[in-house]
Design a protein that fits this description.
heterodimer; A: alpha+beta; two-stranded antiparallel sheet; 5 helices; 5 strands; elongated; B: alpha+beta; Cytochrome-c3 Hydrogenase, chain B; three-stranded antiparallel beta sheet
Chain lengths: 151, 370
């Protein structure tokens, strides 16, 4: 009899609907209005790469040891250097990073002994061409350039 | 599949997928129909083949770790754990207890996330849209914890060979505890929506029945096997990463149908919360990285390590030739093996049930095709 009443009165379906109606006034709105409202990503977020420079002298922290290029699973980092005859040290000449092939695993960042190469919190990496996704030393040193939208 | 001409046949051959939304990716199923009844199926896979196993032969051991995350991208942490355990066994490296506890927490969170995706998409296939939004909302909390811990949300690369790369961030324990407290009432909410719902019962009960003998014959593992009443869980049967310290139950079903699989997975989420709580409470102090050489060069040999991934037994078979790169990496993905039972379950079912059965296997095509 009880089962019959439950069937006729659609109790089981109303129970489910009640859950939906409980959320008519949500405490927290989960939708982000993306370009206007940017998500705050975590501190450890692995996004666009940056080649750090010493803020005091303006010189690069990179010692051209090539460890990041060796650690990279996709072989997308190319480091070239030249020996300075005065100081007998290797100096960085060019550094290219192909973001189109990068999977942001963070192995290059882990391998860097001087914390020169770092994956930053910038996540907007779109480019108009494949060549545009290959970042050279200048772009990497300038760091992330979040796009400004007219909102 | 039938050969010859179909002109005079009463059977109809219907192509389902690879763009069909409820095949969960790019699975193509060729259905042989007699009216509305399915009399045979054939799976066509390989649309997402990336050659992960071959890539493994051309990368060093440490370099291959990010690629395994991309097989079962819904449960990437479990993939990483399996691979790391295999290489650690090959190297005979001891993982510190703190790293083991963190690994357990993250993989159990991953189990919950994977089951949530399964629940949401499966309910969506059956026709209930609401659970998807709710499950995605809870999964987001897990992904936020991942993002804070290792910097990525989906393909995490959270573990390294020998332990962990990142120390826990401040407030990790509190956040995980808060998630556990928040999550358990939400599971009850899903049950309120679905368990007693007559449409849900009508669509799932006695659909896709696979009994224990068939499960064993096909090599089916995971929730599908447990729903058939077999108490088999690798976390209990051959504990790894310190699972023997934690107290939890293995939920089992009776009939081995889709509804039992649903109940088993729901209960597994609750058990995962139980494991996470124990692991957080007993978090040991100490180092997070074992003694791993800078250049990983394992001795000659081969190793097979399997773990209980959310979808079943995930095994890694690695052959080392003594160099820095594996000679062969073979993955035993749970989805691929479980998918074999599709034909057995679909025979005699209706076309609409095929959608339910594909959903109930819980496949991820990235793992099936690799």
């Amino acid at each position: 009899m009880r089962k019959f009443l439950r069937t006729v009165l659609l109790i089981d379906l109303i129970e489910g609907l009640w859950v939906t109606f409980r959320y008519q006034r949500p405490k927290h709105i989960y939708t982000e209005q993306y370009p206007a409202e940017r998500p705050k990503v975590a501190e450890r977020f692995r996004g666009a790469p940056r080649l750090n420079i010493n803020p005091e002298t303006g010189e690069t922290l990179c010692i051209a040891c090539n460890l990041c290029a060796l650690a990279c699973p996709e072989n997308l980092i190319v480091v070239s250097s030249e020996r300075n005859e005065k100081t007998r040290r290797k100096e960085l000449t060019t550094f290219t990073y192909d973001t189109s092939r990068c999977m942001f695993c963070g192995l290059c960042e882990d391998a860097c002994p001087t914390d020169a190469l770092e994956l930053t919190q910038d996540f907007e990496l779109a480019a108009y061409s494949r060549e545009g996704a290959i970042w050279d030393r200048q772009m990497l040193e300038e760091g992330p350039r979040p796009t400004k939208y007219p909102y | 599949m039938p050969d010859g001409t179909y002109l005079d046949a009463t059977e109809l051959v219907l192509n389902m997928g690879p763009q069909h939304p409820s095949t969960h990716g790019v699975l193509r199923v060729i259905l042989k129909l007699d009216g509305e009844r399915v009399i045979g199926t054939e799976c066509v896979i390989g649309y997402l083949h990336r050659g992960v196993e071959k890539i493994g032969e051309n990368r060093t051991y440490a370099q291959f770790a990010p690629y395994v995350d991309r097989m079962d991208y819904v449960a990437s942490v479990s993939n990483g754990l399996g691979y790391c355990l295999a290489v650690e066994k090959l190297l005979s490296v001891e993982v510190p207890p703190r790293a083991q506890a963190v690994r357990v927490i993250l993989t159990e969170l991953n189990r919950i996330a994977s089951h949530l995706i399964w629940l949401g998409t499966h309910a969506l296939d059956v026709g209930a849209i609401t659970p998807l939004f709710y499950t995605m909302r809870e999964r987001e909390e897990i992904l936020k914890i991942y993002e804070k811990y290792c910097g990525a949300r989906l393909t995490t690369h959270a573990f390294r060979i020998g332990g962990l790369q990142y120390e826990l961030y401040e407030g990790f324990e509190d956040e995980v505890r808060a998630f556990c407290d928040m999550f358990l009432p939400k599971v009850d909410e899903y049950e309120e929506l679905l368990t007693g719902n007559r449409i849900w019962i009508a669509r799932l009960k006695n659909v896709g029945v696979l009994n224990a003998e068939d499960c064993k014959a096909y090599g089916v593992t995971g929730p599908m096997l447990r729903a058939a009443g077999v108490k088999w869980d690798l976390r209990k049967a051959q504990p790894y990463s310190g699972y023997e310290q934690y107290d939890f139950e293995i939920p089992t079903g009776v009939n081995g149908d889709s509804y039992d699989r649903y109940l088993v997975r729901i209960e597994e989420m609750r058990q995962s919360v139980r494991i996470i709580r124990q692991a957080v409470d007993r978090m040991p102090e100490g180092p997070i990285m074992g003694k791993v050489p800078k250049v990983i060069k394992p001795p000659l040999g081969e190793v097979y390590v399997s773990i209980e991934a959310p979808k079943g037994e995930l095994g890694y078979y690695i052959v080392s030739d003594g160099s820095t790169q594996p000679y062969r990496v073979r993955v035993r993905p749970p989805s691929f093996v479980n998918l074999q039972a599709l034909d057995k379950m679909c025979r005699g079912a209706l076309v609409a049930d095929v959608v339910v059965i594909i959903g109930t296997i819980d496949i991820v095509l990235g793992e099936v095709d690799r």
